[in-house]
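Please check this record.
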Amino acid sequence: MKYLLLTTFAFCIVACSNQEKAASNETQTEVPAIAKNSQIDEKKTTIKEPYKSPGKPSAPITLEYSFEGKPTLGQRLNVHVKLKGAQKEESVSASLKYSPSLVADTPNNKLSFKPSAPNTEIVTITPTENGIYFININASTVVNGKTMYKSFAIPVEVGDADWAEHNKPEGTLLNDSKDGKVISLPAAEL
């Protein structure tokens, strides 16, 4: 019985010492990985700034636009639109949608911009009401063999429009039974 007890005790001691060695080996192998992942510079021993995500990927397209004159109720307005892609060899195509109070003179809602000749397209609209309206543009180009998209909105301010009123959230802010915030919006009938 004593022999069995001594053998078991010796086995436990050996097993415990092997676990300590294995744990110290694991710690030693993990240290370089941790140091590498936390971006520690070996020469200066300072921690670099953590990685910051650039956000959602979108097409490398820029928009330039200008108006010929001031948007006036009932008068035609020319809007010069120019879309440029960062890829020199790829063209940029775009589709346009207008707010209901902006009437387009031409039914063509498609634009195309060639990379070889930087051109400006002219879109002619006629505002039918005072207020703030938008020309929405969905542009696309090919990057590394894949089509990427980017959306833009050109604001058209007709007459004396109040941006504060336009940006005011709809609905009323209420508290629910659990003291949570709820925005109550009016129902939309279809």
Q: What stands out?
A: The chain is about 20% helix and 35% strand. The longest helix spans residues 2-37. Residues 41 and 169 are 48 Å apart (CA to CA).
